[in-house]
Amino acid sequence: MQILRKTKMEALKLLGSMKREEMLERMEEKSLVGRGGAGFPTAKKWRMALEQEENIYLVVNADEGEPGTFKDKFILENNLDTFIEGVMMASKILDVEKTYIYLRGEYEYLRDDIEEKIKELNNKTPRNFDINMVRGAGAYVCGEETSILQSIMGHRGNSMKKPPYPTQKGLWGKPTVVNNVETITCVPQLLLYDDWNPNLRLFSLSGNVSNPGLFEAPLGVKVSTLIDLARPKNKLKAMSLGNFGGIMPIEKDMKITPELISDENCFHGTYSLIWIDETNNIVDICKNISEFYTYESCGKCTPCREGSKEILDLLGKICNGKGTKKDIEELEKTASHVNQTSLCGLGKTVGKHVLTGLEHFKNDFIEKVEQ
């Protein structure tokens, strides 16, 4: 597995032989994009911060709150050395004032190992890197970059309007780079190894399967290949791309790429695939996801705060056999409105599972209201 390839502190030596511009160009040549879900070019983000000509902060997002996603935990457990080396390299390239690793609350058991590794590697370098650990309190919204910044500064984890973007004005008004654990781990690997493959991704597979787990495969891998790896218990009906990515039908010959997933009106996110078999009704799945969103909404903006509850109420009514076709129409209208008018990425995906569920599995909804 490429992500487990250990750089053994060798990549850090490049900081003495390569200039910043050379390393940024290498990152561009290797096409490193963010692995936290957005897929934004990493070197471009770093350049945006460097253009501000101010002290920069680096924040490493280890919150990983998306249901069905566990790739970052795997990296922290199995290739911690390379991850910390990546943090140090990013800190040096960006010449940051201070670095923060924002750790998911449920990953607290990893904290001692991470802090010990930071201390160990700092003792092996001429520069003492100022790397700090911040433990999240379990809020899903803090996976969003501006919410993370608010949390680190001691405020409630609410999203902030963009622009300005964190690379322009982030922690304490200073330019701030926010990157995912996997993204940071890739930096020393791509700089050290010429055969580093930018097309490989980590797929978190779970759901109604016998062999859930993390698998590395290239973009363009067929759905059927991932199904064979996961070993479903029954005939599959659909797959959910985490909670925010939407629900799409099983097309075994389909290749997994961002473009083809977008064609189904879904988001690839962190390539978390939750398999749903034919024993499930999609309306029940949507209700379960809506319960999650209603609980996790930070409540800052009205569309998400009120809309998530409205969506859940309508789904509950339909699931209980008390819904009508008019309720389905209202559900679709409300989900679309919330997605279009909410402030942050959480609100903009509150209705994604409903809209894609209705697009691809409308009969499941009709069956519920016609019982």
Annotation field: number of helices: 14
Question: Could you state the order of secondary-structure elements as H and E?
Answer: HHHEHHEHEHEHEEHEEHEHHHH
So, the CATH homologous superfamily of the largest domain?
Answer: NADH-ubiquinone oxidoreductase 51kDa subunit
Rg over CA atoms, rounded to whole Å, is 21 Å
Uncertain regions: pLDDT < 50 for 5+ in a row?
none
Tell the overall outline.
globular
Provide the CATH top-level class of the largest domain: Alpha Beta
What strand order characterises the main sheet? 6-5-9-7-8
User: On the 0-100 scale, what is the average pLDDT?
Assistant: 94
Total of domains:
3
What are the key terms here?
371 residues; alpha/beta; 14 helices; Ubiquitin-like (UB roll); 3 domains; Rossmann fold; 4-stranded parallel sheet; de novo design (two linked rop proteins); 43% helix; 5-stranded mixed sheet
Task: Walk me through what this model shows.
By secondary structure, the protein is α/β, with parallel strands linked by helices. It has three domains: 2-192, 3-Layer(aba) Sandwich (Rossmann fold); 200-277, Ubiquitin-like (UB roll) (Roll); 282-369, NADH-ubiquinone oxidoreductase 51kDa subunit, iron-sulphur binding domain (de novo design (two linked rop proteins), Up-down Bundle), CATH 1.20.1440. It is 43% helix and 15% strand. It has 14 helices and nine strands. It has helices spanning 14-17, 20-29, 42-50, 71-78, 80-94, 111-122, 145-152, 181-192, 223-230, 258-263, 282-296, 302-319, 325-341, 352-369; strands spanning 56-62, 96-103, 131-135, 176-180, 200-207, 213-218, 236-241, 247-249, 272-277. α5 (80-94) packs across α8 and α12 runs antiparallel to α13 (325-341). The longest helix is centred in the C-terminal third of the chain and has 18 residues, at 302-319. It is globular, with a radius of gyration of 21 Å.
